Structures are given as C-alpha cells and as structure tokens.
Amino acid sequence: MRNRLAKMSMITGLVACLTTPAVLSCAAVTPANPPQTAEPAYLYKTTFVRAAPGKLLELIDLTKSRMDVYDASGDERPFWWRHTQGDQWDLMLLFPMGSYSEFYSKERMARRNKAAEASALPHKAFLRKLNACSAWREDILVLGPPLESMKKAFEDTAYYHIEICVALPGKQEELYKEREMENIYQVALGRPENMIFVRDQGAAWDLFTLGCYRDIMHWASSGEITKERREEAARRAGFSSPEAIGPYLRTLIDWHRDTMGVAIK
After folding, report:
1. Is the pLDDT reported for residue 70 higher than 60?
2. Whether residue 257 has pLDDT greater than 90
C-alpha cells in the first residue's frame, strides 16, 4: 500500500510539472523548506475606516481618546496605522480578541460596557461621533499570529505594507501556501517576515499579509541584495526564480490591493 501511494505521489508530481505555467518550475508548487509562519490561530477584528471629508484628524483624535476605555475594560489596545497611498481607506485597526468565547464572555462584556459607560463618551455617544467622522467602514474577523508576535512586530516600526487578496475559486489554500513561500524568500534575504491573516468571517477578503518596517527606506531597500542571492532565496522558497513570484501569485487571485502607510504618533 505504501509503495502504491508513493507511486501515485510521483505521478501527481510529474503531472504538476507538466501542467505548471512556463514561468514556474515544478518546485514552485511545493516549497523546498517548511513555512516560516505558524498557522494562524489568534482571532483579530480588522476595521478599515475612510474618514469623512475634512474629518481625518478628528477621526484620529477620536480613536486615540478611546484607548483609555480599552485599558479600563482589560481589552488590548488595537494595532493601528494610517494609509499614505493605495486603497480607499484612511485607517486600519487590528483589535486583538483571542477567541470568540474569550472576547464575548459575560465577564469581558460586563467590564467592556462598564468602562464605556464610565468614560467621557459612553457607547452611543462614541458611535454618533464615529459615524460623523467616517464615510465608510469595513470589518473582517481574521485568524493571525500570536499576540506577542504582533507586539514584537510593531515595536520600533513606523512603516507598513498590507496586501489584501481575494482568491480564485478553490485556490484559498494554495494562496496561503504561496504567501508562506514568499515569507521563506523574505527571510532568506534578511527582510522582515510578513504576518498572514486568514478570513474567518466578515468582508470578502480571503487573506491579507502585513509587513512592518522601520521606515520607507527599510521597506524599499533591495539594491544591495545581489541577483545571485535573490535567485538562491527564490529556489529555497520553492520558486523557479524571483521573477516567477508575481506571475505565480496572479494565477491564484481574483484581485488584490496594496496599501502603504505610517505609524500614528
């Protein structure tokens, strides 16, 4: 039985080689090394907000003023940043939840409501101001890296790059693997690993990756990396070449958006 399975595996691999697009080698389908990123398991609520015309600074101040409420309730403060170019929204906020049962337990809900009602802006008053400051909001609940990994990634970083993807039908798992392969490539070049977040419920996105950098130069720097080193890193990750990474990704997605932004001081 074991020999039969081994033969079937070899045949499947050969078929994959023969049917994979020419820009990719057979290795582009299966990473040469184990993925660097742990499987997403920690729950986050992601909120994208577009400010109402002329209300961006007021929206930022309103969000800052809510941090004390999170502290008083025992909830973690959201990770957030401001877009500089890319998608239509102005702010991205990642609220740590842990799990549904943990976040929506009776005790946590009671503490959350008590902290909100004791604040300068009780819940309904806060929502009225938020509605007045925002023109558009979108929520998606995602599974991502552990909270401690998030905190470490956001330490001393001030520039962010998010890539949000909608997979082609049936390509969600392969898209996730491709994102892991890109992380292997990134790490091999000495660059920060992108955090991967997978949709659980909410908006249409299947997953997004978030990269944290010191500044825009850190994000853009690649000139000192030799062609030979990039090619070796690509092969180690399972791609046929660095030039094959983008075309392979596009065989897996219906559409995607990139956004870059900065920390809010």
Report:
1. yes
2. yes
